[in-house]
Amino acid sequence: MSHHMQTAGTTTAEDLPAADLAFDGQVGAALHHRRRRLGLTATQLARRVGITQRQMARLELGLEPLTLRLALGLGAAL
User: Fold this and answer.
1) pTM of the entire structure?
2) CA distances in angstroms from 9 to 30, 41, 46, listed in the order given
């Protein structure tokens, strides 16, 4: 996982180096693919993880940094 993974904070995509954005984009694409294979909507998965549908969409687009809390929640949900 990316070195910018955090447990709390308000880091945005604009604050991250290009390598981190590329990583988040790859994670987002994999997340989107896995969610679709499981037949889940972004809203359903977001509820399971405890985030908003908007945050889930941003994660899948690589615009939202992957935090440790989200990584653990997504791992459990998927």
Assistant:
1) 0.71
2) 24, 26, 19
